[in-house]
Structures are given as C-alpha cells and as structure tokens.
Amino acid sequence: MSDLSFLDTQRRFAAHLRDPQATAAPEDIEDRRMAIYRDLFWRNIEGFISNGFPVLRSLLSDRDWDALVRAFYAQHRCDSGYFADIPAEFLDWLNSGDYPRDSYPPFMAELAYYEWLELALSISTEEIPEQGVNAEGDLLQGQLLLSPLCALTGSHWPVHQIAVDAVPSEPLPAPVWLLVWRDRADQVHFMELNAPSARLIQLLEQGGDTSADALLQTLASELGQDIHALKPFLADILRQWRQQDILLGIRA
User: Fold this and answer.
1) Which of 97, 109, 123, 143 is in Cβ range 3.0-4.6 Å of 251 for a Cys bridge?
2) 2 and 100 together in one domain
3) In whole angstroms, what is the distance from residue 1 CA to residue 28 CA?
4) Low-confidence residues of the chain: pLDDT under 70
5) Number of compact structural domains in the chain
6) Cβ of 107: how many Cβ atoms within 10 Å?
7) Domain range holding 47?
8) Are residues 50 and 97 in the same domain?
9) To which H or E segment does residue 89 belong?
10) Per-residue pLDDT tens for 111-125?
11) What pTM, to 2 d.p., does this model score?
12) CA 110, CA 131: separation in Å to the nearest integer?
C-alpha cells in the first residue's frame, strides 16, 4: 500500500468512526472489526463527557444526550489530544452553538461551564504558592494576593441549584455570582456571592494596586458608599477568605 492510499484509508477510517451513519467505512475492513472500534471510541468519548457534566447528563433523556454527544463527536475538531481536555473541547463546542438549541435547555451552556469549573480546578496542576506570600500579614496594610485556584462566574440561571427536580423555566432577574475554588487540601468548594463581594474578587483578579485602601476607594466610588462604612465589611470578608484559602495573604 502506498503512503497516499494508507493516509486515505486512515481518513476514511476516522471519518466513519466520527459519523458512521453518514460516512461509509473503508471497503477493505470487515464490519466486525470496525464495530469494535466504533464501540470503543464512542464509549471513551461519551464516558469522559458524561463524567465531566453529571448534572447536565441527568437532565437529558438518553436519546437527547446521545444525539448531542454524537453531534459533537462528528462535527468538532479538538485542539488537544489529551483525554482530560475532552470536557473543555465539548464546552467550546456548546458555546459555538453548533447544535439545535431549541431542542435543549436554554441554560445548558451556562450549566456546563459551571460544572466544568469544578473539573478544571480539581485536575489543575497549579499549586498554591508559598514563596513571596506573607500568609499571616495584616490584610489591611499590604498588597492582597488571590489564590490562583479560584474562578468567579456570573450566570443568568441558578446553575448551582439546578437538578432533575429543580429545573428553572425562566432566567434570573439579575445574574447570580458564584465562586469556585480549590483549597490547600485539594478540595473544591462553591460559594454564592453578593454583587459587592463579586466585584471585590474581580478587582483582585485584575491585579494592579490590590491594597485594601485602593479596593475601598474603588468599591466606595462604584457603590456610592462611605469608605469608613465599607471598611468593616472589607476587613471581615478578607479574614474569611484567607481562612478558606481564597485569599493567600499579602505580598511578602
């Protein structure tokens, strides 16, 4: 077999595995052998996605779920070859809207992103740094350091409450802010934040001047509040976040 014909066979082989209903298998491979590969590849892809999005999977019928995953399998070209990246690729595909949206819940993409955050943080190789951090320093006197293992998301749907027996029919009147983070014990946690707390996380994520004074000035200006009235709120929430490994401390 020439190199070109071998490559052509490989392409037809892969195309058939992706979409066996629309693409015929190479003629010189018996169907019994092809069936083994069809089943093996499908089980792997479906399994990784199902395990990555358990709540979403529980909301859909077997028929709708299989149709969704098969559409992803047939249409999407992954940028990564790592199995652990398959859920992220699936999320990218959902965000592209390359599926019949009217057939699926309107909150599907936001729910999938919320579920993916837990997976992404749990398998992240990032570690909480110990160098350059004063974990016991005065939080009101230094540059505050946010953990690299936390993520803030705003959703128009109550994605943290969605379940088989709790399916929302309408979006929320205002976005809900959710913080997902991994602590020093490698446990992933979730917390609903109010708007000022969420804004504080955003300011810490942006970097720049993260001193308590700078944050107070920004929050007071945006919220129309007195700085002195906000200071107890800031001091209390910073202490809580340090205890929860959301905040690491101040720059050493």
Assistant:
1) 143
2) yes
3) 12
4) 1-4
5) 2
6) 21
7) 1-104
8) yes
9) helix 86-96
10) 999 999 999 999 999
11) 0.88
12) 35
